[in-house]
Amino acid sequence: MPIKRIIPLLLLDNEDLIKTIKFAQKTYVGDPVNTIKIFNDKEVDEIILFDINASRQKLKINFNLLNEIAGECFVPLCYGGGIKDIDTIAEVLNAGIERVSLNSFAIQNPTFVEHAANKFGSSTILVSIDYKKDVSGHYAVFTHGGTKKIKSHPVEIAKIMEDAGAGELLIQSIDRDGTFTGYDLELLCQVVSSVKIPVIACGGAKDVNSLREVLTMGVSAAAAGGLFLFKGKHRAKLINYPLSGFNYNA
Amino acid sequence: MVIVNYNIGNISSIANMLQKIGHKATVTNNPDTIANANKIILSGVGAFNNGMLQLSNLNLLEVLNEKVLHDKVPVLGICLGMQLMCKKSEEGTVPGLSWIDAEVIRFRNSDLFQDMRIPNIGWNDLKFEKKSKLFTDIDDPKFYFLHSYHLNINKSDSTSTTILSTSHYHYDFISAIEQDNILGVQFHPEKSRKYGMKLLKNFVELY
After folding, report:
1. What is the pLDDT of residue A250?
2. Number of Cβ pairs closer than 8 Å across A and B?
3. Which end of chain B has a smaller Cβ tally under 10 Å, C or N?
4. Residues B84/B51, Cβ–Cβ less than 8 Å
5. CA dist., res. A39 & res. A168, Å (int)
């Protein structure tokens, strides 16, 4: 039987791994190569790595680092950040990375998702969608690391990305990022019932129970950052992986 | 041993894992280098048409056919690599390598399946249908899958292809095959931790 995935999501800030709260308040986590090696040794189901500056600051992707990381990683790895053309996707995949995650550029240009899926296959193309919910309860999608507002509901963007050929969606709540307040089950439920491709939940993971809860609700995978990087109230740095999808299913 | 580099990605991870288990492979798209290989790995993620067109544009079809069908050099197809060995695919219009009498079909959805999502992404186990050297000392494995299409072999045909294992995603599908010197797996051993390491080790050392 298929096994639902539990995925550490790691953020690259230049050459450091960091963790954010609501896409701000960066905390240094560690060296990316070492950290990924530790997660690899813990036999995690998959790792997602986002470069948080690539789109915002229009930086070049650090391929030397990606090559080094991929060389230490024998579990599935997905990279996102600053991808705007087909050649870059080819280069990322060539480094030994299975999948790419598209975000800002793809949301503004759905035909790019279509071209990418035609060339590399849908299963290679993940689209991540970040969103906020305002005080009056309205949802809006944001791109460029939460800095640019798109006046669309996440479900609407999710459907457009599915139609364009995305193979999977990562739905991330900016409000819950790094807050340990639990996943946004209500919105995730809406997305899951609106598309026929797998959905990864992200933002707000609190504990093992919250992972179970969101996986039971119907997402195909649960991603988390802080949960796997910190321990306790004072956010002491401790790389941990409380359970793999194997245990979840058991 | 060569890993065929036909611009279809995911090549380095196989070389990385082979290096980890102490074996060296040449990543190449040079027909002369492939002509001298004692083993071939045909990997790849991506779309069927693009894969066949790349092999053709790089002038690799002739040397691959010669090595696999005539010289009977062991070849391991991984994911799209295995699918390209078939006659055709629903994903594309270009004919495949046709080493295996099978076609590649998209996951069949049905109202009977509750919440079937395509692609199938994630870890799954194998149900062994036939013993093979490829799975020597691999017990109760879990492998990583990333695909929307799978092999379909018409069992009524007098096929010489052996189904080594099936896996279950709403229904049973073919996850590994063997036919003389030709081996194929739908999953990604290069990303399947200890199970994948052992499988690649078996391919290198036992074939």
Report:
1. 41
2. 127
3. C
4. yes
5. 22
The pLDDT tens digits of the residues spanning B56-71 come to 999 999 999 999 999 9
In this prediction, residues A19-26 reach a mean pLDDT of: 95
Looking at every residue in chain A, the average pLDDT score rounds to 93
Instruction: Determine whether domain A5-249 maps to CATH 3.40.50.10860.
Output: no
Q: What is the ipTM of this complex?
A: 0.93
With beta carbons less than 8 A apart as the criterion, state whether A123 and B45 touch. yes
Minimal Cβ distance to A95: which of B8, B12, B120: B12
User: In the predicted model, what is the mean pLDDT of residues A162-183?
Assistant: 97
Sequence ranges of the domains in chain A: 5-249
Contact B45 A97 (CB under 8 A): no
B54 touches chain A (CB under 8 A): no
C-alpha–C-alpha distance, residues A228 and A11, integer Å: 12
Distances in whole angstroms, Cα of residue B77 to Cα of each of A230, B143, B177? 41, 15, 10
pLDDT, mean of residues A119-129: 94
- Confirm whether B168 is a catalytic residue: no
Q: Determine how many CB atoms are found less than 10 A away from the CB of residue A218.
A: 17
**How many helices, marked H, and strands, marked E, lie in chain A?**
10, 14
**Contact: A90, B7; criterion CB under 8 Å:** yes
Rounded Cα distance, B144 and B186, in Å? 9
B90 lies within 8 A of chain A by CB: no
Residues B10-23: tens digit of each pLDDT: 788 999 999 999 99
Nearest chain B alpha carbon to A119: B47
Whether residues B193 and A168 touch (CB distance < 8 A) is answered with no
What would the pLDDT profile of A84-97 be if each residue is shown by its tens digit? Answer: 999 999 999 988 89
Segments in chain B below pLDDT 50: none
Q: What is the mean pLDDT of residues A204-232?
A: 93
DSSP code, position A60: P
Which one of the listed residues B62, B70, B79, B205 is annotated catalytic?
B79
Which tokens hold the place of A67? 């090559």
